[in-house]
């Protein structure tokens, strides 16, 4: 059997996760990260950096959602948020939510819905 749950490359043993996060179980109440937060690297990985931190910096050369990072790392989202908080606190990544302007205006959606109902 390979790792937890029998999935190749996956090792979610509690002691490994404890080591990755330095014993922390939450990113903190003021964490800016949710599933759709876009993360962008502000620098390249440096020698001696924790391998997960380096992997995050490599995969976030372009804006990448937290959920995508967690999936790529094969780590729980909560653990990924802790790692991202470490990088954010060190100024190695920036975080932003997808633009609200990119979403259609609710009034326009309502008008479209009314128009469709009238057909």
Automatic annotation (TrEMBL):
<protein>
    <recommendedName>
        <fullName>DUF742 domain-containing protein</fullName>
    </recommendedName>
</protein>
<dbReference type="InterPro" id="IPR007995">
    <property type="entry name" value="DUF742"/>
</dbReference>
<feature type="region of interest" description="Disordered">
    <location>
        <begin position="1"/>
        <end position="25"/>
    </location>
</feature>
<dbReference type="Pfam" id="PF05331">
    <property type="entry name" value="DUF742"/>
</dbReference>
């Amino acid at each position: 059997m390979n790792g937890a749950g029998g999935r190749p490359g996956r090792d979610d043993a509690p002691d490994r996760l404890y080591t990755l996060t330095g014993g922390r179980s939450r990113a903190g109440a003021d964490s800016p990260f949710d599933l759709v937060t876009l993360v962008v690297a502000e620098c390249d990985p440096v020698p001696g950096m924790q391998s997960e931190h380096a992997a995050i910096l490599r995969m976030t050369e372009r804006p990448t959602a937290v959920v995508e990072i967690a999936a790529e790392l094969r780590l729980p989202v909560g653990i990924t948020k802790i790692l991202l908080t470490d990088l954010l606190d060190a100024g190695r990544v920036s975080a932003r939510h997808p633009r609200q302007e990119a979403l259609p205006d609710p009034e326009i959606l309502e008008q479209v819905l009314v128009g469709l109902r009238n057909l």
